[in-house]
């Protein structure tokens, strides 16, 4: 096995071992339900498609934590996002998370949801990574990708998002500027299952699921 492939396999096995309460991987989850607009935009995405390692693909899994159905839980160390389902199950998605000292952790709620959202770079992002235009229209070249779930604490926007990406090769890594990235197909699937106001629990580093 190539060294790169072996490294991904070891990362995946480590993630499963650390997520001790998440036992059996039961089956791949169904394909995302893409709209005609989704298919049109993703058919001409200006980035190379990549093969996501099997560990970080969307799966139905056992789930033994106590979060209520409809809750989103993010295990930042294992690079997994869980959508809790009834009956002790969850859909597990692979994600990219924020670099150390930049990621959100704690409890929030989904305050707003948007399809193919515009991106307005924050002053901090402009200073650190810019310059960018003040607003970047939604589309496959937009860093927010196909969907965005805006995380709020109370009535205040935390400025953190769960969103798609135009860099799917980074799924499974800690690479983002604090937000939680998913493949566009996975964030579409999550978006279709989540309701506004849903609770989002983001575990801090070393606080495993």
UniProtKB/TrEMBL annotation:
- Single Gene Ontology BP annotation: peptidoglycan-protein cross-linking
Keyword check for Cell wall biogenesis/degradation? yes
Q: In which pathway does it act?
A: Cell wall biogenesis; peptidoglycan biosynthesis
One GO location term (cellular component): extracellular region
Domain L,D-TPase catalytic, by residue range, is 70-203
Entry keyword Cell wall biogenesis/degradation: yes
Active site (catalytic residues): 163, 179
Pfam families per the UniProt record, alphabetical? YkuD
What GO molecular function annotations does the UniProt record carry, in alphabetical order? glycosyltransferase activity; peptidoglycan L,D-transpeptidase activity
Known Gene3D superfamilies for this protein?
A: L,D-transpeptidase catalytic domain-like (2.40.440.10)
Task: Tell me the keywords, alphabetical order.
Answer: Cell shape, Cell wall biogenesis/degradation, Glycosyltransferase, Hydrolase, Peptidoglycan synthesis, Transferase
Similarity section? Belongs to the YkuD family.
Name by which UniProt lists this protein:
L,D-transpeptidase catalytic domain
* UniProt organism field: Bradyrhizobium erythrophlei
């Amino acid at each position: 096995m190539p060294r790169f492939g072996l490294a991904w396999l070891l990362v995946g096995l480590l993630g499963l071992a650390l997520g001790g309460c998440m036992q059996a991987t039961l089956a791949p989850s169904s394909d995302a339900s893409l709209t005609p607009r989704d298919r049109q935009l993703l058919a001409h995405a200006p980035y190379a498609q990549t093969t996501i390692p099997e560990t970080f693909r969307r799966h139905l899994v056992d789930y033994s934590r106590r979060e209520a159905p409809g809750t989103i839980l993010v295990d930042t160390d294992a690079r997994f996002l869980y959508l809790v389902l009834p009956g002790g199950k969850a859909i597990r998605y692979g994600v990219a998370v924020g670099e150390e000292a930049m990621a959100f952790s704690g409890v929030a709620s989904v305050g707003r949801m948007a399809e193919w959202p515009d991106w307005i770079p924050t002053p901090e992002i402009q200073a650190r990574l810019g310059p960018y235009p003040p607003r970047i229209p939604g589309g496959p070249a937009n860093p927010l990708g196909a969907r965005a779930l805006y995380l709020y604490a109370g009535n205040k926007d935390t400025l953190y998002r769960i969103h798609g990406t135009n860099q799917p090769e980074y799924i499974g890594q800690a690479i983002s500027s604090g937000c939680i990235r998913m493949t566009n197909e996975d964030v579409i699937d999550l978006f279709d299952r989540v309701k506004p106001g849903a609770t989002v629990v983001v575990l801090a580093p070393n606080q495993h699921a």
